[in-house]
Design a protein that fits this description.
By secondary structure, the protein is of the alpha/beta class. It is built from 14 helices and eight strands. Its main location: cytoplasm.
Length: 315
């Protein structure tokens, strides 16, 4: 059973009552199946109604759910023959950004993305998905390598933002992010990017400058986190919900603005409730996007990609 978010407390209470009835009925002395079915139907309806009207701040919480699939889950389920490549050939290897060669449904590709980790030890090892300069320089190396061998590129974005520490600034964080974005824009191969959780700031754009940008139904994509925006505008992170509303960070808003191309549906209650279904849905969307780009020449791919992002700044 997934862990419940704050706004899901009524659902959690119903599910707790259902579990209690199942436990009571487990000895076989009482037949509580009718009561269990009635409560389960009520719980399912409440879950459906709740997720049909999520606020941007609630979507932010869903996008950050620790049990959502991460890069390693997608790599294991979608990509065969995954060969990870490490290091930026300049400083070291950043575990927040992973990537390498893979086969995706019969097609040789390069795949890279953010990895947040799924327990305390792995989250610390992967720095919670916050890339450092060497991570973005590794991404540049992999993009250029894919371009050299004519391999389509798939990027999976899930980060609250690039690492803001002083060490990263000393090693050229802003330059590394800019160069990574440039490498994506200049590549002569198809690039399909998917926002699978959080798409935060330049740390996300550095891997998301693709010909096609997909986004999970309950993912978020923004120039700054709601808390960061609230801290700047109102001097308090307590206004994060208001900031999320004003920033238009949801997939539905961004599709309407033309920032993303496709919304990938999630299982009822979020990707964390049925990882296999969510991963398969993303796989189908990636296949469709790659198929639409294969006929284009390198020149056409570059022109289309650059026009796509230049258009976003025009009124």
């Amino acid at each position: 059973m997934p862990s419940f978010l704050d706004f899901e407390k009524p659902i959690a209470e119903l599910q707790g009552r259902i579990d209690e009835l199942r436990e009571t009925a487990s000895d076989g002395n009482l037949d509580l199946s009718a009561d269990i079915m009635r409560l389960q139907a009520k719980s399912d309806k409440l879950l459906k109604d709740t997720f049909a009207r999520l606020t941007p701040w609630q979507k932010t919480q869903v996008a950050r759910h620790p049990e959502r699939p991460h890069f390693k889950d997608y790599a294991a389920a979608l990509f065969e023959e995954f060969v990870p490549l490490a290091g930026d050939r300049a400083f070291g290897d950043d575990q927040a950004i992973l990537g390498g060669f893979a086969t995706f449904r019969g097609r040789k590709i390069m795949v890279l993305g953010h990895e947040k980790g799924d327990d305390t030890a792995s989250r610390l090892r992967h720095n919670f998905g916050m890339g450092k300069p060497e991570g973005y320089r590794k991404a540049i190396r992999l993009v250029e390598l894919a371009d050299r061998f004519g391999l389509p590129i798939v990027t999976l974005v899930d980060t609250s933002g690039a690492f803001p520490g002083i060490q990263a600034e000393e090693r050229g964080q802003a330059e590394a992010i800019a160069r990574s974005t440039e490498a994506c824009l200049n590549a002569g191969v198809p690039i399909v990017s998917a926002i699978v959780g959080e798409g935060g700031s330049g740390g996300a754009v550095a891997l998301a400058a693709g010909n096609r940008v997909l986004m999970f139904e309950h993912a978020i994509y923004s120039v700054i986190s709601p808390e960061g925006c609230a801290s700047i505008l109102w001097r308090t992170a307590d206004k994060a919900a208001e900031a999320a509303e004003a920033m238009r960070i949801t997939a539905q808003d961004l599709k309407a603005f033309g920032v993303i191309d496709t919304i990938v549906p999630e299982p009822l209650g979020g990707a964390h409730r049925d990882r296999a279904v969510a991963i398969d849905a993303l796989g189908s969307a990636l296949t469709d996007a790659l198929d639409s780009l294969v006929p284009l020449s390198p020149v056409e791919l570059r022109k289309e990609r650059q026009a796509k992002f230049l258009k976003m700044g025009r009124l």
